[in-house]
Amino acid sequence: MSLLETFGSLVFNDAVMRQRLPKETYRALHRTIAEGKSLDPQVASVVANTMKDWAIEKGATHYTHWFQPMTGITAEKHDSFLSPIDGGGAIMEFSGKELVRGEPDASSFPSGGLRATFEARGYTAWDPTSYAFIKDDTLCIPTAFCSYGGHALDKKTPLLRSNEALNHQVRRVLRLLGHLDVKKVTATVGPEQEYFLIDRDLYARRKDLIYTGRTLFGARPPKGQELDDHYFGNLKPRVAAYMREVDEELWKLGVSAKTEHNEVAPCQHELAPIFTTANLATDHNQLTMEIMKRVAAKHGFVCLLHEKPFAGVNGSGKHNNWSMSTDTGLNLLEPGETPADNAQFLLFLVAVIKAVDLHQDLLRISIASAGNDHRLGGNEAPPYIVSMFLGKELEEILDAIEHHSAYVAGERTEMNIGVKTLPRIPKDTTDRNRTSPFAFTGNKFEFRMPGSSQSIAEVNVVINTAVADVLMEFADRLEQAVDIRAAVEQIVVETIARHKRIIFSGNNYAEAWREEAHRRGLLDLPSTPDALPYLIREENIALFERQKVYSREEILSRYEILLENYCKVISIEAHTMLDMANQEILPAVMRYAGQVARDGADAWRLVEDLDLEYEKKLLRRLAGLINGLGEKTQELDQASRGLDAAGDSLGKARYCREVIFRRMQALRALADEAETLVDKRMWPFPGYGELLITK
Ligand code: ADP
Ligand code: MG
């Protein structure tokens, strides 16, 4: 098959619908998709039948409602198309009802207390704005997952609601600016996905990688990423073959991905898709992660999506590129050519600036996880403090606008927005700040804090909602204005003055920035338990309720789930460490100490006056390490037993961070020291050198 034929060949997309559905049905469905009109059951039944025939032609035998519960991965429950009929035969069946609504046995998915036992069964509802596709001979129908009380139990439902909030408020503003033709506005998203690829056989020998996705022990190799430039000269054939297959599998599913060799850490790579709507991008990213893992197994690799698989080496993130687009083809963050366009651009730009400044806490929370806590703040990842980078030109322009002064760059321009043309804003500013959390990159913003394993749903829920809320306020003001142009200018100037504290273009790692950020009143929330309590502040609940994205109950339940997840991760890590320390590391160090002692004694029997000074010193050091490891292991064990008594969910999460995690670090430090001393052949699992360099 040619590339063009491959692309989207397993997707029931618009082209397939247009070709296969009766005209009337296609039009009705299209209205549902484009304008959010509700779907007629009769239409659903025709669509279901057509979808089934198409899927069977493509070799599918089953169908499933594909959804994104709060576990962060996708869930499916497969049902056969086959229905038995009288007389022992069977027919292939798939009704409109089965397309539109499903009832997975949902009691095992986290609900944070939302799903009382009397409504144990949640239901899934078709999301016609994301195309159905075929995976593993199964027709997958993207769905939202709710409780019978109507509460969202998944990540898609709030994302769809936030898209709607943004759509509504942006259109209000656009109407005031004279765009009467715009029917729909969507958030556009392109998530760049980073990942590690390591050898399957080496992986299989490390319990920490198997159970937790990251190394809990591991001494730094003498040659880390700083020396590895030559290694990236060419792609290893095995990696190249992997990437080719990932690309092809994703293309079939309509994901326009391109895997690339990444020149950052050894064994680390990146996949960048072409941007699409926030909803599709989120579904596609979930599929991408799944396909990357699956194809890796076929090539003798394991794909690690953890944010920080290796201490001291770059972690993996997911850059969430975000903008807003109209159905008439306008990118609202594209600087324009005319004065009017520029006023519009500046209005949306300052809306995002204000949204980020006002909702730093929610942005930090949207990417908070035990894994991402390790990644932020070092090795080219953004810090914990949310700030924005606009580039030199744009910063100077905003400054000039704020002070009604002349902007000097080539030609002199009186800076009154909406009056004169803005100076051109270069697309690819070379002074790009790689560690800025939230950077303007020419015609979109790039949010760089998300972790590689996280769903991008929450991130975009927060950005969409925060921007929608600011635009609601702008629209309210503009609707009262007599002179729209003057009002726009006033809003822009005022917003810059009030929210410029969030803009920072210096070194994000400098201690001086931290101090400066504190002076500016920016939030500094280093860990997940530090950040999560902000989620349930009254002002945040009010924001989400105002924009109809989450109800109070939904926020409270998500808060519980996030805290629970955090504790679960730390707790599993602690137990894995205990196993490895007790069953593998301590025995290895003791065996090596025994060996050193026996060899010394043997040598001394042979030549009586040998002083064996080094052997004695080494033995003492090993004995000290054995003692220390024994002690730290016990301390961690005790800490881990104390978790249940550590109070409510927040108390437990804090205990995980302040007690368990600290003790994990103490144990690791000793084990890593031992690794550098013990005979390599006796070390029970492959070290960083082997994991990261060989392939
Ligand atoms: P950069 O080099 O700045 O990272 P790229 O052109 O490589 O920029 O794009 C990075 C990602 O941003 C890609 O996934 C791309 O599809 C996405 N992107 C580009 N334009 C937009 C947009 N208007 N909205 C959302 N994402 C976008
Ligand atoms: Mg990028």
Helix share bin? 40-55%
Tell me the total number of β-strands: 20
Shape field: globular
Main sheet overview: 9 strands, mixed
Key terms:
Ubiquitin-like (UB roll), Four Helix Bundle (Hemerythrin (Met), subunit A), 13% strand, alpha+beta, 695 residues, 3 domains, binds adenosine-5'-diphosphate, binds magnesium ion, 23 helices, seven-stranded mixed beta sheet, Creatine Kinase, Chain A, domain 2
Topology:
Elements: H1 3-6, E1 11-12, H2 14-20, H3 23-35, H4 41-57, E2 62-66, E3 78-80, E4 82-84, E5 90-92, H5 96-100, E6 101-102, E7 123-126, E8 132-135, E9 138-146, H6 156-176, E10 185-199, H7 200-203, H8 207-212, H9 237-252, E11 257-261, E12 268-273, E13 276-277, H10 278-298, E14 301-304, E15 318-326, H11 339-358, H12 360-366, H13 370-375, E16 388-389, H14 392-402, E17 406-409, E18 411-414, E19 438-440, E20 445-447, H15 457-480, H16 484-499, H17 511-520, H18 528-531, H19 538-546, H20 552-606, H21 613-641, H22 649-677, H23 688-693
Parallel strand pairs: 2-9, 16-19
Antiparallel strand pairs: 1-8, 2-3, 4-5, 6-7, 7-9, 8-9, 10-12, 10-13, 10-14, 10-15, 11-12, 15-20, 17-18, 19-20
Helix pairs in contact: 3-4, 6-15, 9-10, 11-15, 11-16, 14-16, 15-16, 20-21, 20-22, 21-22
This protein binds adenosine-5'-diphosphate (ADP) and magnesium ion.
Adenosine-5'-diphosphate (ADP) is lined by residues 188-190, 192, 272-275, 321-323, 331, 441, 443-444.
Structure description:
This protein is of the alpha+beta class and 695 residues long. The protein folds into three domains: 3-154, Glutamine synthetase, N-terminal domain (Ubiquitin-like (UB roll)); 162-214 and 227-408 and 427-550, Creatine Kinase, Chain A, domain 2, CATH 3.30.590.10; 565-691, Four Helix Bundle (Hemerythrin (Met), subunit A). Helix content is 49%, strand content 13%. The chain is built from 23 helices and 20 strands. A hairpin with a 6-residue loop joins β11 and β12 (268-273). α3 (23-35) crosses α4 (41-57), α6 runs parallel beside α15 (457-480) and α11 crosses α15. It is globular, with a radius of gyration of 28 Å.
